[in-house]
């Protein structure tokens, strides 16, 4: 079975003390994971080291950075490089999140550059893609997300692709309280997998985890994750509530 992943994205939330307490509350539940299940905490940069120390002895629990620079090093004040993340033994990094694309004007090319740096350093990218409301209403979401994959991912070898996690974000469902129906989620996830199969192979497509990233909550996670092509979730708001995120972990296939 493909890896089933519950990935928390704390975004720019929580003080250090609040973050420590949230992590403690979740870990204190001692949720057992199967061999194919993975839990990832995407925490703000200042909390990476401490969070990693809390989970690095736990089976199938990891920490992710929420972003990285597309430059290897140099005079880029305020940026964080892939090599810096690697030096902290961080194993995952979220790239191409819709908020980074929208608010910071990140392009598919820049995201592609980040992807290459991460894979070159042995980190696993969580690559985000997805369409805004206008595209969904126009019915062109398939073409939109296919373009994101082609321009950022499809220069990779099949071997490198194995180390990428994809997170599909229906931007119209993030922070709005709206959630795609299970049918909509399954449909777009299956389409993404078919695009990968066409570019690489069915074997490559069947091996890649595709997460749903649109308002996953404790009360809809099980239904969403039951879809054959949905391999878990990239969770925003619900990941800031210990009891909710614990239930989301438990909902993994």
From TrEMBL:
SUPFAM superfamilies listed in its UniProt record: Triosephosphate isomerase (TIM) (SSF51351)
Cell compartment(s), UniProt: Cytoplasm
GO cellular component: cytosol
Active site: 97 (electrophile), 169 (proton acceptor)
Family: Belongs to the triosephosphate isomerase family.
Cited function: Involved in the gluconeogenesis. Catalyzes stereospecifically the conversion of dihydroxyacetone phosphate (DHAP) to D-glyceraldehyde-3-phosphate (G3P).
Protein name: Triosephosphate isomerase
Organism in which the protein naturally occurs: Niabella drilacis (strain DSM 25811 / CCM 8410 / CCUG 62505 / LMG 26954 / E90)
């Amino acid at each position: 079975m493909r890896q089933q992943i519950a990935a928390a994205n704390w975004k720019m939330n929580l003080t250090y003390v609040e973050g420590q307490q949230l992590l403690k509350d979740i870990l204190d539940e001692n949720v057992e994971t199967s061999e194919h299940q993975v839990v990832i905490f995407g925490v703000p940069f200042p909390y990476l080291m401490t969070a990693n120390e809390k989970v690095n002895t736990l089976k199938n629990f990891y920490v992710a950075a929420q972003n990285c620079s597309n430059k290897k090093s140099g005079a880029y004040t305020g940026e964080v490089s892939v090599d810096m993340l690697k030096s902290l033994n961080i194993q995952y990094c979220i790239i191409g999140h819709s908020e980074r694309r929208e608010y910071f004007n990140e392009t598919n090319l820049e995201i592609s550059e980040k992807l290459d740096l991460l894979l070159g350093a042995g980190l696993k990218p969580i690559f985000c893609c997805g369409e805004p409301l206008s595209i969904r209403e126009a019915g062109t979401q398939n073409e939109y997300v296919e373009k994101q994959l082609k321009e950022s991912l499809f220069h990779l070898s099949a071997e490198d692709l194995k180390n990428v996690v994809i997170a599909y974000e229906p931007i119209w469902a993030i922070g709005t309280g709206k959630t795609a129906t299970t049918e909509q989620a399954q449909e777009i996830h299956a389409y993404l997998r078919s695009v990968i199969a066409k570019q690489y192979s069915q074997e490559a497509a069947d091996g890649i985890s595709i997460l749903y990233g649109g308002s996953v909550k404790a009360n809809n996670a099980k239904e969403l994750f039951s879809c054959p092509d949905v391999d878990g979730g990239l969770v925003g708001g619900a990941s800031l509530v210990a009891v909710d995120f614990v239930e989301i972990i438990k909902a993994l296939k």
